[in-house]
Design brief:
By secondary structure, the protein is α/β, with parallel strands linked by helices. It is 34% helix and 13% strand. It has a 5-stranded parallel β-sheet, sandwiched between helices.
């Protein structure tokens, strides 16, 4: 199951999903409410929080996979802050393994130094201001991905401390506490893969993310683009066509360690 990063539509992960499917691994991709194919006609007034993405959307996708493949090992693949969304789902313990691609917690001091101040100004100044004006964050107009529901945008804007604080939620801090408490229930193996030219998921950022999951047996790969004969990778490059020969086979043995796959595929 592939969980998107914040404000990224599921179709962005279609090539990687197709690669896994071609190896005989059933794959489910899905959009969070308010994003991509799950976006309503208007986001103004549309209510969706990060907890909704985790408790309902992610949990529903997990339940769908489990109902279809009752005896299979489920693997949670999550991009960026999708790792926090996945880990907070009430049934996330259904996963046997977790592949986190460019995971981070959204704390600006973990970003690469040259992007730290510009991104802090964007997420903590521009984002909440525009969200108040438009009733949602118009990310598309700024070429920052999909437009984001207001409550999620304001939660993101409130992420200013090194610790994950439930009080950053704008509707119900108790739901955020429950979501974060579930992180400690996850067990099994995890692979976090990041790239040296990623402005957001630095080694420091990935370690902070993994610290939220104290009972996972985690390994970190930090890869330079030159080491895999690529010009650049960054925060999104793993899922692009150019990464297929250089990176996707490297994670296949983690996703499917016995190399069995299945004969059907689902997208």
């Amino acid at each position: 199951m592939i969980s998107c990063g914040g404000g990224i539509a599921a179709f962005r992960y279609a090539r990687f999903a197709s690669f896994l499917a071609s190896c005989g691994i059933p794959v489910l991709t899905y959009d969070y409410r308010g994003i991509g194919s799950s976006r309503p006609a208007s986001l103004r007034g549309f209510r969706a929080a990060a907890e909704d993405w985790s408790e309902f959307d992610c949990a529903g996708a997990i339940a769908q996979l489990r109902s279809r493949y009752g005896a299979a090992d489920l693997v949670g693949v999550a991009h960026s802050i999708g790792a926090l969304i996945t880990g907070g789902a009430p049934n996330a313990t259904e996963f046997a393994r977790y592949l986190f691609v460019c995971p981070h917690t959204g704390y600006y001091r973990d970003y690469l130094l040259k992007h730290r101040l510009p991104m802090a100004a964007m997420w903590h100044g521009v984002m909440p201001a525009l969200t108040q004006i438009f009733g949602y964050f118009p990310a598309k107009a700024l070429r920052l991905g999909e437009d984001i529901p207001a409550e999620v945008a304001m939660q993101w804007a409130a992420r200013r401390s090194p610790d994950l604080r439930p009080e950053a939620t704008t509707r119900d801090a108790s739901r955020a506490r429950l979501m974060m408490a579930r992180y400690a229930t996850l067990q099994g193996s995890a692979l976090a893969i990041g790239f040296r030219d990623d402005s957001f998921a630095t080694m420091k950022g990935m370690r902070r993310l993994l610290a939220a999951f104290p009972n996972l047996q985690a390994e970190i790969w930090l890869i330079a683009a030159a080491d895999v004969h690529m010009k650049s990778i960054g925060h999104f490059g793993f899922f692009r066509r150019e990464a297929a020969p250089a990176l996707w086979p490297r994670v296949l043995s983690f996703v499917d360690p016995v190399g069995r796959g299945l004969t059907t595929a689902e997208h």
